[in-house]
Protein: C-type lectin domain-containing protein
Amino acid sequence: MNDHHYLSLICCLLSLYLHKYSLSSPFCSDGSLYEFGEVCMFLSSCVSDCVWGYICLYFLLTGSLFCSFLFVKTLSTVNYTQQGWRVFNTSLYYVSTEMRSWNRSRNYCRKRGSDLLIINSKEEQEFIIKNLSSSRAWIGLSDSETEGVWKWVDGSELITGFWRTGEPNSYRNENCVITGYGSDFMKNWADFPCSDRFFWVCEKRIFN
Structure:
């Protein structure tokens, strides 16, 4: 059985589950259910890049409760993507369409069950820059507690950074960090005053 067969089976099983229990799903804005074929097509596009989509096939067939957990996460993920969030690996990302200070940006994220972005790899950094479309945006990094000690919003210290040449420079009490400051994908972080206004990126872990 090839990958497309696996995906088709997953989609059909999930859509049958929806119809059997008459669940209101996030697939339709009015709360109604898509037709069988539409559910299959939609879920195929959603889970084609997700490893756990394949894992779910096994647990669907064995009837494990773990698949129920994955099923709920799938619906939750679809709901977020319909609100403008984007998926990369095991996280959801929201790129703002307005500009705010660092603290106000973070408050926006936290009210939605997420937080400002934590960048853990060059792949994630590249994904974010491609989605910013040449904009500059706040990320969840600052040295507000101790000057020169850069920490993420989860309290962990920065290990690998993607600073622009000459940054950070702490000019004008610059304690918060943006990404997208320059054309180099891998060297475009800079510190700015936290009161300045930029776009921002929220991140929500799918399995948290």
